[in-house]
Amino acid sequence: MNAIQINDYLIGAQHRPFIIAEMSGNHNHSLDRALAIVEAAAEAGVQALKLQTYTADTMTIDLDDGEFFIDDPNNLWQGTSLYKLYQQAYTPWEWHEPIFGRCRQLGIIGFSTPFDESAVDFLETLNVPCYKIASFENTDLPLIRKVAATGKPLFLSTGMASLAELDETVRAAREAGCKDLVLLKCTSTYPADPKNSNLLTIPHLRDLFHCQVGLSDHSFGLGVATASVPLGATVIEKHLTLSRTEGGVDAVFSMEPAEMGNLVIETKRAWQALGEISYGPSEEEKPSLKHRRSLYIVKELKAGDVLTADNLRAIRPGQGLSPKYYSMIIGKKVKKDVKRGTPVDWELLI
Hints:
The chain has helices at residues 31-44, 56-59, 82-89, 93-106, 117-125, 141-148, 163-175, 201-209, 223-228, 257-274, 326-329, and strands at 4-6, 9-11, 18-22, 48-53, 109-114, 131-133, 154-157, 181-186, 212-216, 235-239, 294-297, 312-315, 342-343.
């Protein structure tokens, strides 16, 4: 499967995981804080930082009752309307250019998730290098076609989508011009419980749709994200905040900068550890062969003495015959005087 190139970065199995830090609404309506999040992301070592491009009016309508009001005690945003939530969480469009500019200065990719066609038109004026489609929009085929028609790489979260819906979505994207597609396994709960992550879906997605795959993760900690790497995830997205204690719409399930840095380190280690199918000592292990057990004479012997359990043992280091020969040589005689601590070899025996 071919790697995908975005600016100077490559996405694929032969390259370290591509880490996306999601800012979302964690800027808490401060451009200075938003720029500080960019700086924290770059310092943590991520390859990209992502925004979300919408307004409350492009997401929903201003109603405070019925299905427009979040009345679910298990919902992180319980007790507010959809409209007010998006008012609180959105990133002002005039902030996008300075945020993306800071990303470029710091050598990371800045891009966004558009939530309607006007957002795509706006982001195109900023020449973003790639796009993401959020889980809740993965059945919005007109939006997907609009993004795909740009010809730019597309990350697409799979949360809640059935296999039939995903097939329809992927077909729409490809038919509209998307050549570089990354499907991100996602569990659309906030936060997400690891037991609902179903990471075994990742290789199935890769094999079914013949594209790069990854993980958009809303769970706590590093475990789920790190576990996704040996299953084939080449991209990992996690939310980033400067401090969970300072609040924010997504702060509860977001990583702090030091944690994001650890994510970069540990996912790279997981990728490095995959290696290849290998048996026998590696080049680095070969010096350790001398520390294996082997057969040694452990008492002074005279020529003609018989090897017994009292004077022959399998001990470290590994300069003698392998312990597997113990039963073959026990009871044999030595042909010369032998000092204690002599490794056994065939030339020593009668």
